Amino acid sequence: MKAFVFHGPGQASWQDVPDPAVKEPTDAIVKVGAVTICGTDLHILKGDVPEVRPGTVLGHEAVGEIVETGSDVRTVRPGDRVLVSCITSCGRCRFCRESAYGQCRGGGGWILGHLVDGTQAEYVRVPHADLSVHALSATVRGEDAVLLADIFPTAYEVGVLNGHVRPGDTVAIVGAGPIGLAAIATARLFAPERIIAVDLTPARLEAAHRLGADAIADVHEAPGQLVADLTDGLGADVVIEAVGVPESFEMCTRMVRPGGHVANVGVHGRPATLHLEDLWSKNVTITTGLVDTYSTPTLLRMAAAGRLPTGQLVTHTFPLHHMEEAYDVFSRAGETGALKVVLGVEQHAQVAVPTPP
């Protein structure tokens, strides 16, 4: 089969690799129908995630069809259409029992495209399949569902829920890439008073406005002052960091009000300064996190009901074998206007919804 293989910082290629096979009785083999590229994949290519070894197939998000299962798999069978979660769960360790699947100690957590071969391939082996894939309704398109493998649960859990967004809050989101846009969409579920989006790309700021941001600010035009002006100098109740560079994290800590929350979602490859000399007396809560995907079933139901604007985030689609081109377009988002790129989009019939009498 063909797959997108990491060879070291700045080096990767779409090439022939051996077909995956069932190794454990809890494994499933999935034929990939739709896959996307994550900002984390770009961090890997930059060398920001050194535990990814050369020779690893990248990718941790997919929609596809089960083609083979191990003897212990009970919840899916060959022919089932499924979402492959970015997080793998053994279901037995202490963390999985607490729904903290991202911290799984039983061979799970974030392993696809990280510690084992991932989803940017024609086929993928999914360990612990019973708890690591989700059956899909035929009404959910593959290009919509694949966004629920990672970006929507990440934005919702690590950003919105960890940030304790509440009705009437002012929410500032620094970074209007796919995660930041998904954070805007899911923060709106809690009826904040206003959402302020900060980015350096006009196209992404326009997308933020379309998805529900009440105010937008270019990062070079004093966004902190805008937040202060809109909050009578207090600062935002919740600030979500969705970039992953020191400058954006430090900006977030300057924007938050006393007693507020800073929810870091971005993947950081360099140290950031924590200005405790300013923050120690402000009762600020700072959270970090790897997504656990405990919210995925809820988000899938919302997507099936048309309650999530997933389709608005997909700007480019490609055949699966155009992986290198898709990476190029996604990595130059400032020039190409790319938000999410989806490859190998499934072709399947849409189920008609009966009209009420």
UniProtKB/TrEMBL annotation:
Keyword Zinc: yes
Pfam families reported for this sequence: ADH_N, ADH_zinc_N
Enoyl reductase (ER) domain boundaries: 8-343
Gene3D superfamilies: Medium-chain alcohol dehydrogenases, catalytic domain, NAD(P)-binding Rossmann-like Domain
Regions crossing the membrane: none
Family matches, as CDD domains: FDH_like_ADH2
SMART domains found in the cross-reference section: PKS_ER
InterPro entries in the record: ADH-like_C, ADH-like_N, ADH_Zn_CS, ER, GroES-like_sf, NAD(P)-bd_dom_sf
Alphabetical keyword list: Metal-binding, Oxidoreductase, Zinc
Cofactor(s) of this protein: Zn(2+)
Keyword Lipoprotein carried by entry: no
SUPFAM superfamilies: GroES-like, NAD(P)-binding Rossmann-fold domains
Family the UniProt entry places it in: Belongs to the zinc-containing alcohol dehydrogenase family.
Protein name, per record: Alcohol dehydrogenase
Organism: Streptomyces canarius
